[in-house]
Specification:
It is built from four helices and no strands. The longest helix is centred in the middle third of the chain and has 28 residues. It has one domain. The chain is mostly helical.
């Protein structure tokens, strides 16, 4: 499994497609695969998760609670992601 590709391609596209359960499953799958790799890679990827995607998933959940229109959510997510 290429963890770098998951972090930079699959997870952002899953976030933009509004499939939070898939995002969470991918994150746990990545973390499991990271645990079999060496310490430096594990440390860098876990840092990347903590600093970027964890906060984006929390903000995604907040946006869904506040905004019901899908088009508005798309605009907010694109602004947050860029």
């Amino acid at each position: 499994m290429n963890v770098f590709a998951l972090v930079h391609c699959i997870i952002p596209s899953a976030i933009l497609s509004f499939n939070c359960s898939i995002v969470i499953q991918i994150i746990f799958q990545c973390i499991r695969s990271i645990m079999t790799q060496n310490f430096n890679i594990r440390k860098r990827i876990l840092y990347l998760f903590r600093e970027t995607f964890c906060s984006r998933i929390k903000s995604l959940a907040f946006i869904f609670k506040q905004v019901k229109q899908r088009e508005r959510v798309v605009l907010l997510l694109v602004k947050a992601y860029v």
